[in-house]
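agent> step 3/5: call structure_predict on target 'Carboxymethylenebutenolidase homolog' (Psilopogon haemacephalus).
agent> reason: downstream docking stage needs a structural representation; sequence fetched in step 2, passing through unchanged.
tool.input:
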Amino acid sequence: MANESRPCPCDIGDRFDYGGHGQEVQIEHIKAYVCRPPVSTEKAVIVIHDIYGWQLPNTRYMADMLTTNGYVAICPDFFVGQEAWKPSNDWATFDEWRKTRDASKIDKEVDVVLKYLREQCGAKRIGAVGFCWGGAAVQHLMLKNPQLKTGVSLYGVIRFFDDRSSLLHPTFFIFAEKDQVIPLEDVAQLEQKLKENCKVDYRVKIYPGQTHGFVHRKREDINPQDKPYIEEGRKDMINWLNKYL
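tool.output (status=ok):
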């Protein structure tokens, strides 16, 4: 198992020199990274970044991966120009920083992105995937936004929301067994509420031995036993999207 000491190690990885195959665009009041497949498609995925922001190469790598699987992928700046968290920042200030970046306050930006995907990209079936902070945002959207078809929440911080179970759309929750940010007790509570209340398809999966951020990093310093779970998580994400989009 990879050994991380920080509360949110999503930035760890070997993708910092990854430039991406897409382009940056301005959509009304927000910037976004967009990547399109070579063949026209009516399917699109909104990629919601973690605390390290929309320019993190690890996240752009994931957007490009979605595109290679036939989706228009767009990663907007959901911090809307506010500075992303930096690995050099003082973690003692993190809670105050996060208060100004609420994962449940992205509806205006999502509406802008949905309009762009429909009018400029020809998208008719749209889903969302998100990592860490973005995973929590996906859960919010699956609870609130009727325009989306499905979502994948990857190690989303589920304690952000009291109403966790009345999902509108099929949702796949990916968690890491050794996540120091999301206790397994929280995962168990979420799963119990889903069993009691959820009316749509859902899945909760815990990946053995893995730590927070494992799916959207491709590390060269990981132990060999981590790699299959990284690949499995990505395959599971794609398969879920393929099923519902």
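agent> step 4/5: record observation. The longest helix spans residues 227-244.
agent> proceeding.
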